[in-house]
Specification:
Layout lengths: L3 H14 L48 H14 L3 E4 L12 E4 L6 E5 L4 E5 L4 H9 L3 E2 L11 H7 L6 H4 L2 H4 E7 L5 E4 L13 H4 L8 E8 L1 E2 L3 E9 L2 H12 L5 E8 L11 E9 L1 H17 L6 E3 L4 H10 L6 E6 L5 H7 L1 H4 L3 E5 L4 E6 L4 H17 L3 E6 L18 H11 L14
Parallel strand pairs: 1-2
Antiparallel strand pairs: 3-4, 4-8, 5-9, 6-7, 6-8, 10-12, 10-13, 11-12, 11-15, 14-16, 14-17, 15-16
Length: 446
């Protein structure tokens, strides 16, 4: 059964999408009586569900529970103070800037249920810590990030998917549920830690990729998987971009156990590679399946006169992706371009001159290009970004800034497009954060 705060959160969503209550009246919620008014008509008034707000702390906040975080957010909202969510220790505050609220104390394994294949962890828990815990138990969560210290809350909030997505699904598939503190003092549990959870709205997915602009994630439940019994990568040195794109598209047709098909230029490379590009095909799972698939890939490419690849069990396509972005350093501008998979080769051939002197990684299965630019000149960087972005928009894609050097902070348009659902997103933002205090300017809806 859902708690009152959770029912109220679903009621909020209902009003955002169907403010006149036209769709299936009474099916999930009772229809409000005409003499009832207010945003929560038919339900217990919100004021009776939350505790009194706390005073504003100039040093910021490090809550230890979801309830404590909710009270702190409520106080910040009532004071109209902009708030930045972080997983790092609280930095020195100033009286006029955003107040920091850190998930650093919301850390550790809360529930481990190997028989039900899930784990619940505090949102401030580093991803590396979760993987180390599961590694000892021959399991893992198929999530990876270029930044080794990233917390699971930050990874979920930014919805950063690695090439592993082609094998295991996206972050939205791996996250089962979460506990969230809202700025009006409510604490909600978005679903339950079971795969077939069909009761009520799937609120969990609303917070994945919200960049901390709707609420504060305090704990997260994740699917766990058995560690693959075999993981092997074929590495193909490539001299020309067009050749690498052709080979990668051929590989994509054969992928069943593949967990990464990536093409890299510059950045991280295999020691054996002296070519301009490196194409990697990683497969993992049952040894017999992995070997059969890699043999098939090799046979198909040999018919195209592709030289025999290097085979390795110590490097994966996903590791090439992470190291290419991580090794770019804090002084690099990192842009993620997303286009339909069928348009990926068209896009890259069209912007080849823009990428000629940069490092980049192509994720074939997901239609992503991660381009890395070293210029600290705002005008040059903006022109480069605009050209990449316009080419992507023409092909029904996008180009967003993932990371940028301090010298460019606040000078580049990070998103560069407006999704068709923007109006609905803004209405939900207004419902849950009416004073727009959470992570201002962090997401497209601001």
């Amino acid at each position: 059964m859902h708690k009152p705060a959770e029912m109220l959160a679903m009621w909020d969503v209902k009003q955002v999408f169907d403010p006149q209550f036209l769709l299936n009246p009474g099916k999930v919620f009772p229809v409000p009586a005409q003499d009832e008014a207010g945003p929560y008509a038919g339900y217990q008034p919100l004021a009776q569900l939350v505790a009194a707000a706390t005073e504003i702390s100039p040093e910021g906040y490090i809550p230890t529970t979801a309830q404590e975080a909710a009270r702190q957010l409520q106080a910040l909202s009532q004071a109209g103070r902009a708030t930045t969510i972080t997983s790092a220790p609280i930095a020195e505050q100033n009286k006029t800037g955003p107040v920091q609220i850190s998930t650093a104390a919301l850390r550790g394994v809360l529930t481990y249920a190997p028989e039900d294949l899930y784990i619940t962890v505090g949102a401030g828990t580093p991803l590396s810590e979760i993987q180390a815990f599961l590694h000892e138990r021959e399991q893992h969560v198929p999530l990876v990030a270029p930044w080794p210290d990233i917390s699971i809350g930050a990874l979920v909030a930014t919805n950063l998917n690695a090439p592993l997505r082609m094998r295991y699904g996206s972050i939205r598939d791996i996250v089962l549920c979460a506990t969230v503190a809202l700025v009006d003092g409510r604490v909600i549990r978005t679903g339950r830690p079971i795969v077939k959870n069909v009761a009520g709205f799937d609120l969990t997915k609303v917070f994945i990729g919200s960049h901390g602009t709707l609420g504060l994630l305090t704990d997260i439940s994740l699917k766990v998987f058995a560690r693959p019994r075999m993981q092997r990568t074929l590495l193909f040195p490539v001299d020309e971009l067009s050749t690498g794109l052709r080979w990668g598209q051929e590989m994509l047709q054969l992928a069943l156990t593949a967990s990464a098909i990536v093409l890299t230029r510059g950045g991280a490379q295999a020691p054996e590679n002296n070519s301009s590009y490196l194409l990697a095909y990683t497969a993992e799972g049952v040894p017999e399946d992995v070997q059969a698939e890699l043999d098939q890939v090799t046979d198909v490419l040999q018919r195209l006169n592709v030289p025999a690849p290097f085979s390795t069990e110590t490097l994966t396509g996903t590791e090439l992706w992470t190291s290419s972005i991580r090794d770019a350093g804090q002084d690099a501008l990192v842009v993620r371009i997303g286009v339909p998979v069928k348009n990926l080769a068209i896009y890259l051939e069209g912007v080849a001159s823009l990428l000629h002197e940069t490092s980049y990684v192509v994720d074939f299965a997901n239609g992503f290009v991660y381009a890395i630019h070293s210029s600290k000149n705002p005008r040059a960087a903006q022109e480069w970004l605009d050209a990449l972005r316009q080419a992507a928009l023409t092909l029904h894609g996008y180009a967003i800034v993932l990371a940028q050097p301090a010298a460019l902070e606040g000078q580049l348009e990070r998103w560069g497009y407006q999704p068709s659902s923007l109006e609905v997103m803004q209405r939900l933002k207004a419902q849950w954060d009416p004073r727009h205090i959470l992570n201002p300017a962090a997401f497209v809806l601001d």
